Each structure stands twice: as C-alpha cells, then as structure tokens.
Amino acid sequence: MTQVTQLFSPDTARVDLLLIKDMVAPNTRVLDIGCGDGTLLRMLAEERGVDARGMELSQRGVNDCVAKGLSVIQGDADFDLADYPDDSFDYVILSQTLQATRNPRRVLEQMLRIGKRAVVSFPNFGYWRIRLQVMFGGRMPITENLPLAWYETPNIHFCTIRDFVALVDEVDAQIDRAVALNSSGAPMRVSAPWWVWNLFGEQAVFLLERRA
Amino acid sequence: MTEIEPLKAGHAARREADAPHSLVLRLPADKPLMMDAGVTLAPLTIAYQTYGTLNADKTNAILICHALTGDQHVANTHPLTGKPGWWEIMVGPGRPIDTDRYFIICSNVLGGCLGTTGPASTNPATGQLYGLGMPMVTIRDMVRAQALLIDQLGIDKLFCVIGGSMGGMQVLQWVASYPDRVFCAIPIATAPRHSSQNIAFNEVGRQAVMADPDWANGRYFELGQNPTKGLAVARMAAHITYLSDEALHRKFGRKLQNKTAPTFSFDADFQIESYLRHQGSTFVERFDANSYLYLTRAMDYFDLAEDYEGSLARAFKDTKTRFCLVSFTSDWLFPTSASRAIVHALNANSASVSFVEIETDKGHDAFLLDVPEMFATTSGFIESSARAFGLKEAKSA
User: Fold this and answer.
1) ipTM reported for the complex, 2 dp
2) If exposure means fewest CB atoms within 10 Å of the residue's CB, which of B211, B226, B321, B322 is most exposed?
3) Catalytic residue among B71, B98, B300, B331
4) Rounded to a whole number, what is the distance in angstroms from the first to the last CA of chain B?
C-alpha cells in the first residue's frame, strides 16, 4: 500500500515538502510520520543536517527507507506514537496524512507531546472547487489532487483550513507559521484573511507548538 | 580420546563436541569464564567458523549468533549432516552478509554440542564428561564467551552483530553488555525475554527428554546409550512452534503419506506425521540431549530488563548502536509485539532504530528461509551502516 501517492498527487506534494523543509531548523531531530519512500527525510538529512527518523505503514516504504540508510519504523500514526517519550524530537511532521487517520485530534495531541513543534500539511476541503462540486453536483468531490471516490479513498477525516485552526485551539497549541497554497501550488499572500485562504487555498502547511 | 564404534545416533554429535571439524580456541585454565550461576568455567573451548577476510584495521567483522539448534556452520557443508550451512541464503559472495566484503564469525554457543564447552564435552581437567555437571548457562554467559573469542581475534569493535531467535537474544545482550563494541545490530524474530508460553513449550521438550529411560539422569554416554526417542519428541513438538498453521496447511494439508486411504492404525498416515518423525530422527543424529536441556533453559532465563531494574530502556541506555529489527507476521513464537517492545525501549533512548514486520506465512522459521523482503531490509541496512562506519566499498564495486 503506497499511501502517500494515493493521498495526494506527487507534483503538488513536492511543493508542500519544500515548504516543510524550510520550516525545519538545521541540525535538529525530526520524526516524519508517514514518511513514504523517505523523500522528505532524505532531503532534511542531506540539506538540513537533520537527525531524521521516520514512521511508515507500508513494508515497501520502510524497506526503501532502510535501504537509503534512514532510520524508519514500521508503524501506524493512530497507534504507535504513544511509544515515544515526551519531547523526543524538535519537529514531528505529518504530511498529507492527518485526514487519513482514525483519530486526527489524538494524533495531533501525540505529535505535540513527543515533539517540541509539529508540522502538519493537509488538503483543504473548503477549497472553492470542492465547495462547488458539493453544492451543484450534490456528490462527494473528485479533484485532480483528490482523485478517489468516497468509497475508496483512505481520506476519512477531511477538514477545512478553518476547521483545522479550530482544532489547533482545542488541543492547546498555537500557530507559529501557516502557509496556504493555491491551485498552482504557489504560496498565497500572508496578509490574506482566513476566509480567503479557506476558499482559495488548495492545501495548507502549519507549524505549531504547545501554547506557552 | 577413545573412538566410539559403531556410532550410535547422537554419538557422532558427541565426537564433534570433543574434536570438532572447526576452528577451535582453547583458552588456558587461568583464563576462566565467569558465569551467571556464580561459578567459573575453565578451561574453556570455543569452536567457531570464519568466512571472508579481516581487513587491516579489523573493522569489517560481523558476528553471527546462532539459534537454539543452530551451530557455527553458517555457510559451509555441515560435518555431521553433509547439508549446506544453515544460513547460506544470507551469507556468501554478494549475499546480504557479503563474504567478499566482511569478515564473518560464528561460534558454537556455550553449552552447545559442536565443539564449544558444553555438557557433551570432556572436561580436560578431569577427563570426565561434563554432563549435568556443566554449570547452568545463560544468554549472557554465551555472549561473554563470544567476547573472549572476539578479544582473541584482536577485534576491538564489531561492525555488526546479527542473529535470529535465540541468536537475536544474544544480539540484544551484546549491545547491553558491550555497548561500545557493536556498531550496528540486527535482532531478527526475537524477544527481550522468553514468554511464559515459550517456557512452557521448552519444558514439554525437556520433560520428553527426561522421560526417556535412556536419558538416565544425563549419564547416557557413560552407559553407552542415548535418549533419542525423547529428544526426537522434543524436536517434533518444538518444530510445530516454528511453523504457522497456514504454512502447515499449505505444505501438508490432510494429505496422506504414500497411500490412498487411512490404514486405521497408528502408522504415519498423514504427511505431516511423517514429516515430523523425519525432523525428529534427523535431529538426534546431530544434537546432544543434555545440550538441548541446557540451551532451552538459557532461553527461559533470558529477561534482559530484569538485569536493569526491570527497565528494558535502561539496558540500552544512551546506546550509540544502530539497530534494525525484523519480525514476521505469522511468527507466533516470537511475535511482532516482542520486537515492538524492543523498539519502544530503543526509542526511549533516542536510538537509531529501524523496524520492519515482514508479511509471510512461514512462521518463526521465516528467518532461515527465502524471504526476499528480509534480504532487502538487511542488505540495505548493512550497506548504509557500512557507509556510516566508513567501510570502503568492495573491491569489485
């Protein structure tokens, strides 16, 4: 099961990986949950000097990573994060996977417990094209980036950018940085209000930490 | 020593215990082994095999730890059975454990019967068989003995220690006992302690041996007999635990052995019966019954956390060793949860750890079999660890 490619088309995913890379300070300890074939981990290790660790559900992904010399554990974000002690990492990254977890709130809480900071990227279900499809088509949306029908998608917990911001507040975290990407994968103006992001952002990347 | 002619089943094993077809390290009597049982053992003999060439810096050594009924004959024809080495699938030129690149060592465990001091060995000090006079052996004792061999070979730090099952226990013990002497570790299909269920299976095996009148309180060699029936039953019972229900069904199902209808007797009607009987009868040709008792006991006593105030994490405190753990989905003897407990303890130490659970129906025995995912994982890990350790590429590369 190659979950990462199923969740999101690779072209746009690249953009969010680059954004995530920029959010991670050099020479830190990082856990990438759902690290796939280790593309981001390798980028972080080579370009940022990061002590990179990963967790991945698929045996194939783990094998690819281990063969690249990455330290990766076969595991499931919903169950296996509890194994890590508090503050094990400087950053815990969850890229395009939150919406596929069984309990996104619990996962986010665990990330903030084991990492000093959490980086989360996800597709925005408030994106205008998606809204249009639901409103006028009356069917669950299928887009270029979310190509699977409702009955076969692993994405069981979609949220909008506004929903996510509300969840951040509920788990007692604060937003250090947030970036929304428009349909061409370019970051939107930082000064734009939330509702603009929520409507025109196709995906978003958040850097969080526990509220002081 | 006196020749035993004709060789009865198992007596060949005894000959191999005293005069092994192997490299042998004989430590002097003033270099005793301190054992967990609180006694010293001397003089100590260690039988071992090596493959490949040790480099000038002595940095390319891989120690393979064998399982309960394994031995040092990893990648050469077995002197008793004439069969290929037990891990030739993993060890050889171009294999994951590449003999063109690494210096590979495997020694017969302490308490074994293929040349390292054990109950089937003659005590050189007395000229008597050790038998049940052999002190009880632990996994830590086995590792202590291996460390003496590694010292003797002039190797300061092992590049890698690898093993499955009881071999995996030794790998864990190596890192705990000698944290600075292991660069990377690959424990496969193993556990940080022997479970109650596993102790139970071992006890069944031991009772089968001891219930055989020919066992004679362990003095069978002196009486010119051998508890082959008991040992064969022990092996048959154990062998079931190494396989999975699915694999047994795939291989044997309810198929009959060389017949079209049941005989309505207690003959081996079913193929699985015939297979197990064969496993039992070939095992007793090469293994010593007392040795089987000692080694199963060593596994039972293994509980790594116990030595560290009940905390497995403390056993690996601040470890710098890189780990790669492998478990198999259908292994119910050393299930994935046991490997996960090790991963958990290593995570608590921020250790560099990789872990993969390989999907297979081959059960516990999978680590000895053709499982391409295991080859891919281990070779990838060894390769990247070699880079991290600064080992040069193979000459041919």
Assistant:
1) 0.81
2) B211
3) B331
4) 48
